[in-house]
Amino acid sequence: MQPEILVMAPSPSPAVMAQLDEHFTCHHLWQVLADQHDAFIDRVGAGVRGLATTGTIGIDAALAARLPALEIVAVNGIGVDAVDFAATRPRGIAVTNTPGVLTDDVADLAVALLLAAARRIPALDHYVRGGQWAERVPLQPARTLRGKTAGIYGFGRIGRAVAARLAGFGLELRYWQPNVVAGTGVPRSASLADLARESDYLVVCAPGGPATRGLVDAAVLAALGPQGTLINIARGSIVDEPALVAALADGSLGAAGLDVFASEPDVPPALAALPNVVLTPHVGSLTVETRHAMGQLVVDNLLAHFLGRALLTPVP
């Protein structure tokens, strides 16, 4: 008999979805109306041995308690801050994620947001489409990237990939995270506040979770300053969102490019109304190739577990 798994959200890859249905008895919660979720889980929960979830959905203690036979949580995403390890660890439930395969696309989007914010591309698009160019409305020039400094908060795979890309634009580089990264020529700032103070662009690539919640606060934004730009492709929880809105509105921060938000998919109207921010809907890994690779890694981890093999990407 095939192992039963609960699928929290679909993969955009048809091949991944076909493999899930081929190898497992799938209970697709995402196909069920929200007001029927509880009844659905009551009906299938006792037999569920695996959970296919996402980095934003994860699994909480309440759901874990309703899946008494659960053996593995396979997260389609790199972030595991939505996984309640206090609920999974005592039961020996394995957790996997999908690192590595999304690094390049997320780094590409970070650079795209930085360029869009620095060169005011959305505003210029509006300027052309709105007829202001034809009307000869005066334009304020942007600032060059060369000779500026990009500070990267979180210097793991994605942070280092962002650094490699930005070096090609002539930017000086710095990073900060609690532990020193060996084997890099990029200097480490003494603190996050120092990194912001020393940077023209602050790129957030750190993991989410309680340890980083709200660390990019009003003081860090003030250190970045009125000519500074914040880029966040990590987790919305890392940034104090009300402080960010206030800083962008009063000019104490120059601009921002954001792919993630504190309460997705809800974006504060005050943030969306600002002209000096570029917004994208958490799409750092949303390419055909990467989403397939992520989904494939979910399938491969589930198969490895139920075949008694070593997991490909276990979360410690």
Automatic annotation (TrEMBL):
Q: Does the keyword NADP apply?
A: yes
Mind naming one GO cellular-component term on file for this protein? cytosol
Query: Mind listing the GO molecular function terms for this protein?
Result: glyoxylate reductase (NADPH) activity; hydroxypyruvate reductase [NAD(P)H] activity; NAD binding
Keyword list (alphabetical) reads: NAD, NADP, Oxidoreductase
Q: Which Gene3D superfamilies match?
A: NAD(P)-binding Rossmann-like Domain (3.40.50.720)
**Where do the D-isomer specific 2-hydroxyacid dehydrogenase catalytic domain residues begin and end?**
13-315
Read off the Pfam families from this record: 2-Hacid_dh, 2-Hacid_dh_C
InterPro entries given in the database record: D-isomer_2-hydroxyacid_DH, D-isomer_2_OHA_DH_cat_dom, D-isomer_DH_NAD-bd, NAD(P)-bd_dom_sf
Domain named D-isomer specific 2-hydroxyacid dehydrogenase NAD-binding is located at: 111-284
Tell me its family: Belongs to the D-isomer specific 2-hydroxyacid dehydrogenase family.
Q: Know the name of this protein?
A: 2-hydroxyacid dehydrogenase
